[in-house]
Amino acid sequence: MVKEIINFETSPAEYRHWKLNIDDAVARLEMNVREDETLGPGYKLKLNSYDLGVDIELADAAQRLRFEHPEVKVIIISSIKPRIFCAGANIYMLARSSHAHKVNFCKYTNETRCAIEDASAHSGQRYIAALNGAASGGGYELAMACEEIYLVDDGYAAVALPEAPLLGVLPGTGGLTRLVDKRKVRRDRADIFATLAEGLKSHRAKEWGLIDDYFPSSKFQAAIAARARELTAATLEQKTGPGIRLNPLQVEVSSAGREYAYVSLRLNREKRYADLTVRGPEANQPGTPEEIHKLGDGYWPLRAYRELDDALLHLRFNEPEIGLVCLRTEGLIENALAVDRTLAAHRDHWLVNEIILHIARTLRRLDLTAKSFFAIIEPGSCFAGAPLELALAADRAYMFSDPRRKVEVAPSPMNGGALPMSNGLTRLESRFLGDPQKVDKILKAWTRLDTEAANEAGLITVASDSLDWDDEIRVAIEERTSISPDALTGMEASLRFAGPETLDTKIFGRLSAWQNWIFQRPNAIGEHGALISYGKPSQPKFDYRRT
Amino acid sequence: MVKEIINFETSPAEYRHWKLNIDDAVARLEMNVREDETLGPGYKLKLNSYDLGVDIELADAAQRLRFEHPEVKVIIISSIKPRIFCAGANIYMLARSSHAHKVNFCKYTNETRCAIEDASAHSGQRYIAALNGAASGGGYELAMACEEIYLVDDGYAAVALPEAPLLGVLPGTGGLTRLVDKRKVRRDRADIFATLAEGLKSHRAKEWGLIDDYFPSSKFQAAIAARARELTAATLEQKTGPGIRLNPLQVEVSSAGREYAYVSLRLNREKRYADLTVRGPEANQPGTPEEIHKLGDGYWPLRAYRELDDALLHLRFNEPEIGLVCLRTEGLIENALAVDRTLAAHRDHWLVNEIILHIARTLRRLDLTAKSFFAIIEPGSCFAGAPLELALAADRAYMFSDPRRKVEVAPSPMNGGALPMSNGLTRLESRFLGDPQKVDKILKAWTRLDTEAANEAGLITVASDSLDWDDEIRVAIEERTSISPDALTGMEASLRFAGPETLDTKIFGRLSAWQNWIFQRPNAIGEHGALISYGKPSQPKFDYRRT
Fold first, then answer.
1. Which alpha helices (H) appear in B249-347, and where do they start and end?
2. Shortest CB distance from A323 goes to which of B100, B492, B544?
3. What is the ipTM of this complex?
4. pTM for this structure?
5. C-alpha angle A21/A22/A23, rounded to 5°?
6. B164 and A320: CB-CB below 8 Å?
């Protein structure tokens, strides 16, 4: 059985679609998609349209800029192709993709754009979209993920969201939400814009708030450069490099799973579940930013969560039949807590800050993964501090109970705000919406909780007697993997994000759910659906009944 | 062409499934669904399961209690059938319904439950769920719409959400959202509960917050009665009856549409759009609560919005091919504003309060209707005050422009908070999220705005010169109705609800969108899907790939 495995690792030297140039505090990230360098067969990436392969490079660039180039304050996203910025996700790719790939593709590109916004907000790396030509669909959505958008005024260039009128689908990468919730475009104008295939040019686009400004072709580059200088000068934060290098992950791949340095993914395909184990840090981790910098990407929290992130992406795209992931940890609680103390103490150091932000993004990726997660808390585990978030992110946590073999979990200050969910709350706050004083109590009263105390505190779901343990876990796994995977996806998306909503949760909840619905509808993907008919001589035929 | 037209009007004398008894301040609303009295063929409503016909009666009862029985402070929802409260939406009905009917059915039942919560919150009519037996699926969701839930402890009775494990769908009437967001049940417990077909009984159900308390069978009725007395005694508000009677709407039905006293619905089926016209009030409307009470349901704002509500429901269920509704008004602005002044001045009177709350619910029904809405503002129209909300609720507003024939719109204090959207904001606040000072300016600076001023103020989308008017409207209608209806539904659901999210928007946005997705999936509705297989000897067969 040969399967195409999608690889999520890359580096600037390997980029096929982007060019990354760094000039002191200003980076230029230029799109120049190679038509034939596609991830799959049967389509060409014309007009800077993109597939997942293009976005994997963009995600990598945004990630590397944070770790490898902390001196960069402004990133200008532009295109090398004349008169075209980006035509968005490739339509022929979408039309021939499975439903699951379409959905996972949109989720990943959304996460990349959220990571760009996270860098603007928390890393002092602000993104400017310099639209040197048409920005259409996903191209304009990418622009909206940037803090500022500038459009060339050449009589042709326009921004557009043509998905609804041309393709019968939604802008799938947060476009509608960013339009009205981030850029706060008036809803009736947004309605016109999102149904106008040709989009809007300079003057009207600015008047409606779709762009921040426009400049004639002759002055465009100079105006963007001037704006970048203004922004770098206005940035108070003075991060001093050098950065650290993000080396390729070392992973041993087999049919049984993936073995990283600190992460193991072991697949039980027959039973449709996987064990995902994070091994905790060794003793004697570095205690100062200088030592951490020296250790670089070998430092446990950076390496372990990079590996975890890769494993999650692998599970999403390459292991669709795995419905349940058992989250496990191995190691010593005191070692995990020691790392947390170091991270918490030195958060004002740029590298420590980036490491924490990266852990937070990885955990959000877990929250947003359409698999069930059970945390399995056994003797020898180290669900302590940041790794405790794995148990809090899980849909359920099972904890071993035996007076002769004590198991413990341990909160740390890292559970108190450093690792927010997409809804803006910590996982403890989300968990105890109905009993908020428990959050404080857990953070203040305990250093460690055994099974009884953890159960009493509400940190675990089930405390299971050691004699029943194996049976209980086995039955829970069997029951979970027997349920309709679609019902579980919708259920988990509803139960995981109680409480407030943010731009991110609106994108991943409301907008994505609607897009997923539309991606199932004959009007999009049927024989005469708009997505399938695109580029063909025949017009789409709609069933006009509204739902 | 014969079509089954669903009728949304009923009255207690006609109820087939509910019994409404009123004893001073306490009403009992008892479910006793007649198996054979279904809205459609091919299923039986066993075990107090329901179809739309059952819910139309429930919605009617909740509505009448507000207007006809203002003295009622507590409504006890229970069942007459022994050992069964309610088994939820009828599964055979769902399995044989079209996708559009399933979606519209869930939306309507959700709106009924939101109306129950609205009565608890704003009308001093608090709902208690007295679960004398099993409350399963939609039965438990109905209970969660009540302020308090009590369960009989007879060794059998349980609350349950068996949709995911048994049927491969979600609890479609707000259950998951109310579980974690209203009752704030811990997410891992909610996860277990929503995958446990048999549900949970008294003790565990109370411990997890699924119910408020439980009582043994022998003491159940007495305990509920005592709680009702406590609640009535604690209600400070002393509304004095008598109420007013809600008489049947007078409507003339033809193939061309529906003609009510103040509302006309005219269908252009060939072009897939409808004109929905609200005629404004006559001069000399009553100015005091006493006069309004005397006029009863003939009072313009009550009658006009009851008619509008009925027309919207008719459009949703009975006219699926109509994709666009042009909202029009006819009448004198001064008459509309005079009514608003009366409503605003006497809001502390129970009947005026109910009328305002009813207008607000009707407008929210419009916001949530999956049709495009264009407001058409022409000479002779009266988009003023509450009717101006029709233009603000519309996806676009087109306003006629001709210096020789002035058209005006007019804000009133009613646009300033009395008629909130589901997101908790006014339509003006939602419109001007990016420019909030405009809201105040509009409410304070103007009594009337002509086309130029309305355009300048941002109240309309397009000001169209009288010479181009007919063409512009015709082209706009043709363009709109040519777009994929599914893309429009997803787009409008995203653009209409910018800003904050509430329980209601989470239910109608996130949860409903996921449910609609699942209702399209082969794992639910395919030949071997769980919804289709229910009650058959064969087990469902799932495609286990997670999406």
1. 289-295, 300-318, 333-345
2. B544
3. 0.95
4. 0.96
5. 125
6. no
